[in-house]
Amino acid sequence: MGWELYRPDLETMNLVGYLTSDVKLPAPQMNWGTLHGFLDALTREQVDHAFVSSRSSWPQAIAACAADARKIFITLRGWPEPTGAASSSQVAQIVAPFRDLFRGYSIYALMVPPPQETMTPYPNPPKELAGFFREFAYDTGGEGLALMPHGWGGLQSVLDPFPALRALAEMPVEPPAVVFWSGLGATCCLSLKDAQEFFRREIRDNLAAGKGVIHRLVEARANEAGTKHLLHISDLHFGDATSDSSRRYIKSHLDRILSSVDRVVVTGDLFNSPQSAYLDQYLDFQSDVERMTDKPLIVIPGNHDVRPKGNVIPGILKSNYEFAFNIGWHPLVIDDELKCLFLCFNSAEEGNLARGRVTDGQRMRMAASLNEEANRRLRREQNIDDYTKIALVHHHPFAYETIPSAPYDRFLREVFTNEDSFTRLEEAEEFISWCAEREVSLILHGHKHVPHHVSVRVDIDGGRSQQMVVVGCGSTTGAEGSPLCYDVVSLNPQTGRWGGYVPS
Fold it and tell me: Are 134 and 196 in contact (CB under 8 A)?
C-alpha cells in the first residue's frame, strides 16, 4: 500500500504515525486547521492525495471514515476556519474511525525527499525515491504502508512528535531518506541507499513471519546506528520565583530521560543574580543531576551569573566573577567516549547591559588550548583531530525575533522597538567565522528564553565551507513565565550530521 500526499506537513504524518500504532498511546496534540485540512482532503477525490494499493476498496473506505470523522469534528469544534490546537483526547475522538484501517500492517515507511527548492506547488520527488516508494507499496502487498510527501519544506514544527518523527530527528541522514517503523514502536531512519538494502535483504523476505519478527529487525537496525544524545538545558535562573517553584518538577522529569542521554550541557544563566544563596540552589540542582548521569555537567556562565540581574552599566552596575568558577566551568572539555570536544566560552566577559562578546583574547586562549591538547595527545600516539567540535556560548550568535515574556524585555520592545539591541552577542560574525575555521559543527546557546534552530553553511578562506547547526534553548525552568524547555540534540556518528527535537 502506498499513499502519496500533495499537501505534506509533518503534523499530518505525525497523526498517521499515531493511527498506525498497535501500542496504546495518547493521540498527538494537533492544530485544528491542520486536522480540518486532513479530513477535507480525504473526503474529496484524489485532490490532495493518491493511493498505490493492492486493496481496491481501501480508498473508498478512507473516504467513508473521513466523512464520519468530519461529523465528530463539527460536534467538538464547529466549522469552518477553526483556530488553535485540539487536545489529545479531542484528536483521539475525531480520528477514531480511521484506526482499523491504519493498524495491522507489519511495516510502515515514510519517504523523505530533499527540501523543496522550487515554487512548484507539488514538485516531484527524486526518481529513485519515487521508484522505491512504488517497490515498497507493491512488494509488501497487504503487509506494508508507505507515505510519499510531494514537496518538503525543510524545518517544521510539530506539537507532539510521534516516535517515527523523533527517529528522523535523532538519526539524521542526508535526504532522500526513509523512516521505517513497526506498529509495536520500533523505528529507524536510513539513507535511501541503506533503506533499499535493508528492505530487500531483511524485510521483504520476512513479511510472512509476522509483526514480531519485523519489529525486531527494525529495532536491531536502529541500534546499529549508535546515535549519541546531548541534553541541552539553559537559563535556570535560580532565585527567580518561577524557576524556584519548578525545580522539583524539572528534576523528576530529567530523572526519567537521563538514562538515554550521553552528556548534559548547560548554557548559562544558572542563577538570577550573583548571590551566594542562588549559587547554592544551583549547586544542589547540579549535584542531583550529576548523580543521575554519573558524569559532570558541562557548564558555561551567562550574563546573570556575573552581573546584577544580568546587566552591567559602567559606573553603576559592575560585573562580579566571584561565583563564575564555582559552577565547574572549564573552557575546554574533552569526552573521549563520545569523541567530542566542547569549546566552552564566556560571552559575559564583555558587553554592557545584557549584551555579550567573545573577545579576541578568549578565542586565542581557546585556540592555544586546542593546539596544546592535540600535541599532548599526539605524543601519546592519540589523535583528536577527527573529534566532533561543539561550541557553547550563552548569547545568541544569530538574531531572531521573539514575543517578549519578561517585563524587562517588554519594556525594551515598547521603548526601543527591538530588545535585541540590548541583549545580542556583539561581533557575532567574527565568532561564527572562528568556529567555522576550526570545523565546529554545532553551537549551543541560551539567553533568549525561546527555542531557536538555524542550519547554515559558512564560507571559509581558501574556497572551503563548514556546515553548522546552531541551537538555542529556552528556559528549562520557565523563568519569568516563559515555557519550560530543553533540547535533545543527537549526533549520527556514521554521517557526522546533527539532529534533534524540543520535547513538548
Answer: no
By CB atoms closer than 10 A (0-12, 13-18, 19+), residue 53 is: middle
Alpha helices in 261-355 (DSSP H): 276-293, 303-306
What grid cell was written down for 257?
Answer: 530521560
> What radius of gyration do the chain's Cα atoms show?
25
Please tell me the predicted confidence (pLDDT) of residue 9.
Answer: 65
Helix (H, G, I), strand (E, B) or coil at 432: helix
Q: How far apart are the first and last CA of the chain?
A: 32
pLDDT digits (tens, 9 = 90+) for 314-366: 444 445 556 666 788 999 999 999 999 999 999 988 766 678 899 999 999 99
Of 183, 203, 196, which is closest to residue 18 (Cα–Cα)?
183
Query: 88, exposed or middle or buried, with CB in 10 Å at 0-12, 13-18, 19+?
Result: middle
Rounded Cα distance between 447 and 394, Å, is 6
Determine contact, residues 459/432, Cβ cutoff 8 Å: no
Quote the CA–CA distance of 483 and 209 in Å, as a whole number. 46
In the block, which residue shows the cell 523563568? 479
Cell numbers at residue 400, please? 531572531
pTM: 0.69
Residue 367 neighbours by CB under 8 Å, 6+ apart: 438
CB 206 within 8 A of CB 214: yes
Could you write out the three-class secondary structure of 167-183?
Answer: HHHHCCCCCCEEEEECC
Q: Are the C-beta atoms of residues 485 and 473 closer than 8 Å to each other? A: yes
Q: Which residue bears the cell 558587553?
A: 351
- Contact status, residue 275 vs residue 310, Cβ threshold 8 Å: no
Cell numbers representing residue 121 in the block: 506547488
Read off the pLDDT of residues 134-163 as tens digits, 9 standing for 90 and up. 999 989 988 998 888 776 555 444 444 566
Residue 387 in contact with residue 433, Cβ under 8 Å? no
The three cell numbers locating residue 83: 483556530
pLDDT tens digits along 28-76: 888 888 888 888 877 765 455 666 666 667 778 888 898 999 899 988 8
Look at phi and psi of residue 99 and say left if phi exceeds 0, alpha if psi is from -120 to 50, else beta: alpha
Q: Which residues contact 241 (CB under 8 A, 6 or more apart)?
A: none
